[in-house]
Every structure is written in C-alpha cells, then in structure tokens.
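Please check these two lines:
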Amino acid sequence: MIGIATFFLIAFGIPWAGWLLVRDENMSLWLFPLFASIAGFSAAYAEGGKEGLKVFSRRVFAIAPSVPYVLAGVALPLLLGLSYLLTKGVPLFSMPWSPAAVLALSLGAALVTGPIAEEFGWRGYLQHRLLNRFAPFWTALIVGAIWWVWHFALYRASVFASPVSAFNFFAYLVTWSLFMVFLVESGGGSVWPAVALHWAANTHPSVLQSLQPYVDGGILPGGSKGSLFYLGAACAFAAINHRFFFAKRASGSVSHATADNSFKPKPLRGSA
C-alpha cells in the first residue's frame, strides 16, 4: 500500500493545501495541478525504487504504439462537440476555416496546465493500479470520481456551488475517463493518448467557437453544457466495446513494476 498512500498524499495533499491557503491564480493553474503527475512518479519509486521508476517511465512515455490513439484522443472531443451542435440544429456546412481556428488548435498553455500536469498520475499510475482489481469500466468510474473530488478545493466556489453543476461536471469527467481507459490501454499503457484527449477536451469549446463564430456561445458545449450528451456517447461506446470494458483481467495476469518489471499490456479474459 505504500505506493497508493504516497500517490494520494502528494496528489491531494499539496494541491489542496495550495488551493485552500494560497490565493494566486498562476500557482493554482500552473503549479499545484503538477503534483498529480509528480504523485504518479513518486508512487512508482516508492514501490520499486529506481528500477520501478525506470519501468514506469518507459511505459508512460512510450510513443510508437500510442500514435494512433493520440490522434484519436485529439479528434474525439471535437467530433463529440460537432455532434452535439448538430442535435441543436446548428448547420455545420458553413464552418469557416480561419486563422482564429488554427490559433485555437494550438493553445499550448492548455497542454501544460492540465494534461501533462495530471495524466501521469491519474492514468499513468492510478488507472494502471486499479486495473489489477477492476474491469476497465469500473476503473474508469473510480478514477473519474476521484478526479472529480480532486477538483473540489479548486472549484468549490463555482462548479461545486450547486448540486446540478457539480453533477454535470462529474458526468463530464467520467466521459473522458471512459474514453481514456480505452485509449491508454490500447496504446500499451502510454499516457500520451490521455494527454492528447485531456488537452482536446479543454480546448475544443474554443475551437468550436472559432469554427462557428456566429453561433450563440450559450449553445457551445464545454463544462456542464452537453455533459449528459457526452456521457451518453461514452456509455454507448462502452456498450459497443463491452468485451473490453466489462471483462476483468485474469487474476495475477498483470503485475506491477515491483513484481516483474513489465508493463506490457496483457489480454483481457475472453478477448483476442
């Protein structure tokens, strides 16, 4: 349990202390979220020392097997957003492709403040650890719920100010958690697909606004808007891929870094 204890102590302890005690917007967005990813590396070191950290790093930083899923992660939020606009009767054939849209696609700051700062912890360590005990669907729900609670200290006066907005935010995070568990595991455990999806999820409202400059901003999805539509799409995706999401890995088929120094993905029971 030393790895899990180390992870939660760092991932929650330092950000929550900062968000509750320090009133500095730059530190809240740029510094404190970083400890979610630091927690993942620290937990791997606590469990396996230098060798455990080395194996963890090889898995989460792997690029080659994850490239298709990185591209899917970038495209997925935008496709969901465009689908949501279609349900609202917004015509998509007249979308302008302008420099503003290109600029919106290159929001570099959004890549650092959330995706890189967090995903090596949530999907790199915690998700991988929970998959040893739970099927991917339940793992995604658990990680999504923990991810939601983690945001409380930061958004306690806004998102968590009402039960409705808090629930919509929960649905929004669970949506991405469901897609991330599929993309990360399909990419061999590399975290880059989750980083790409997290970045695209954070920026796609701005991209859609650039692509649809004449649409009322109140219609554009993002945050709580469209969250139930997004969650419905994620649940439909899970139902279509039910063999992946609901088949628990065979007991002992996946070992952590400290056991066999291997993070190669193992087949799910009943899958090819």
In short: Residues 2-260 form one domain. Confidence is low (pLDDT under 50) at residues 251-272. The radius of gyration is 19 Å.
